[in-house]
Specification:
The structure is a single chain. This protein has a 4-stranded parallel sheet. The chain starts with a helix and ends with a helix. 27% of the residues are buried. Helix 2 packs parallel to helix 3 and helix 3 packs parallel to helix 4. It is globular and about 50 Å long. The protein has 169 residues and is an alpha/beta fold.
Length: 169
């Protein structure tokens, strides 16, 4: 579907506004990092910024990309690609979208990699796979995938605050 989306965005290029492109890996990809690289190359001419989504709960094992070594490799390749294509497409900020379900040691690793690779910002956080015991809708408590909204508020606010401290403002 990337070609269809690219054509739509290219057709509205003169319309102004901010266009964020959320990139992620295909479910069945043999090289997930390569998926991100190819999408950055493809969408750089039309994107105002990129969101590297490494936290979708609906793509099996995607959250493994939040682990220190995998994330460092991903960010290194993405930043190199962004810098290379910026010569023709212009500068495009890269933001990292993480899960709110990370532990504090995992968050230390994530922020460390993000700072080391000098990405432009972070989005904290995606949906949660946790199901709070006080969830009112029983059907929602047994669904697979991500949960958002009010039940996520306390968790995401805590991870946002912890991230803020780690990135030093």
């Amino acid at each position: 579907g990337a070609e269809v989306v690219l054509a739509r965005l290219a057709a509205r290029a003169g319309a102004g506004g901010i266009v964020g492109v959320n990139v992620g890996a295909n479910r069945d990809s043999a090289d997930r990092t390569d998926d991100y690289v190819r999408l950055i190359e493809t969408f750089a001419p039309v994107a105002s910024y990129f969101t590297l989504n490494v936290s979708s709960p609906n793509t099996p094992q995607l959250r493994d990309l939040q682990k220190r070594d995998a994330l460092d490799e991903l960010l290194a390749r993405v930043v190199d690609t962004r810098d290379r294509v910026s010569r023709s497409a212009g500068a495009t900020p890269v933001l990292l979208k993480i899960a709110p379900d990370v532990t504090l040691p995992e968050l230390d690793d994530i922020v460390g990699a993000a700072r080391k690779r000098r990405i432009d910002g972070m989005i904290v956080g995606n949906t949660t796979t946790a199901r709070p015991p006080d969830l009112r809708e029983r059907v929602k408590s047994i669904e697979q995938g991500g949960l958002s909204g009010r039940p996520l508020f306390r968790l995401s606010t805590r991870v946002l605050a912890e991230t803020y401290v780690r990135v030093e403002d």
